[in-house]
């Protein structure tokens, strides 16, 4: 389903939440490496300045450690920059939300920025199950169960057309400081969305929705 999984040091889903997701490369930030070790998962690549790891915790004999002391970028952005060498791969990002709010907001902005170069999806665990987050393209078709919760958040504004929703969007202009489009629901198994501008889509389903 995905080619690469990036794990950042935020609210990392439990091992059971993503054990059925296939991937060929696992990249993690240094702070997330300890959690993966507790899950008995060995990352292929560990990135960061390693300031969050003690000497004893740096022992990952089967992982490639890539150190960067660049303080101008977060560890999650370092992982995204590393993955720029794989522009055609589908990438799932875990642990990007939760923890401090400023990191969470910045990580969402990173997904918006890097999605022009990478095929990115975030998985965020919620009390309702799984929330999948990705940047909208100009035209998208999404397959989900009927009554799936769907939200939209612009960076910083967008105009949306999405008729197959409980509250249909018809040339609806949304902004960060104005009109919102959150907690809507699908009314069909196929949802066609047109988007002008920069906008993230949030879908709450157990399984990754088919997105075309």
Poorly predicted ranges (pLDDT <50, ≥5 residues)?
none
**Largest sheet report:** 13 strands, mixed
Strands, total number: 13
SS element count, helices? 4
Radius of gyration using CA atoms only: 18 Å
Oligomeric state of the chains in view = single chain
Describe this protein's structure.
By secondary structure, the protein is α/β, with parallel strands linked by helices. The protein has two domains: 4-125, Thiamin pyrophosphokinase, catalytic domain (Rossmann fold), CATH 3.40.50.10240; 132-211, Sandwich (Jelly Rolls). Helix content is 17%, strand content 40%. It contains four helices and 13 strands. Strands 1, 2, 3, 4, 5, 6, 7, 8, 9, 10, 11, 12 and 13 form a 13-stranded mixed beta sheet that branches. Strand 1, helix 1 and strand 2 form a beta-alpha-beta unit. The longest helix has 14 residues, at 101-114. The two termini are 14 Å apart. The model has no long low-confidence stretch (mean pLDDT 91). One of its GO terms (molecular function) is thiamine diphosphokinase activity. Its EC number is 2.7.6.2. Residues 24-117 form the Thiamin pyrophosphokinase catalytic domain. Pfam families: TPK_catalytic. It comes from Candidatus Berkiella aquae.
């Amino acid at each position: 389903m995905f080619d690469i999984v990036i794990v950042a040091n935020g609210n990392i889903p439990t091992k059971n939440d993503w054990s059925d997701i296939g991937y060929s490369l696992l990249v993690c930030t240094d702070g997330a490496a300890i959690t993966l070790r507790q899950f008995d998962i060995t990352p292929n690549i560990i990135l960061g300045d390693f300031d969050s790891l003690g000497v004893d915790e740096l022992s990952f004999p089967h992982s490639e450690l890539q150190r960067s002391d660049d303080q101008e970028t977060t560890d999650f952005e370092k992982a995204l920059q590393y993955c720029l060498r794989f522009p055609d791969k589908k990438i799932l990002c875990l642990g990007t939300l939760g923890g401090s709010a400023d990191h969470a907001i910045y990580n969402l902005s990173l997904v918006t920025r890097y999605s022009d170069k990478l095929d990115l999806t975030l998985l965020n665990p919620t009390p309702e199950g799984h929330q999948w987050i990705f940047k909208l393209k100009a035209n998208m078709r999404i397959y989900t169960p009927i009554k799936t919760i769907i939200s939209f958040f612009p960076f910083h504004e967008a105009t949306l057309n999405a008729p197959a929703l409980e509250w249909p969007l018809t040339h609806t202009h949304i902004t960060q400081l104005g009109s919102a489009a959150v907690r809507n629901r699908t009314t069909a198994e196929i949802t066609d969305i047109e988007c002008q501008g920069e906008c993230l889509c949030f879908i709450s389903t157990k399984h990754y929705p088919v997105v075309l």
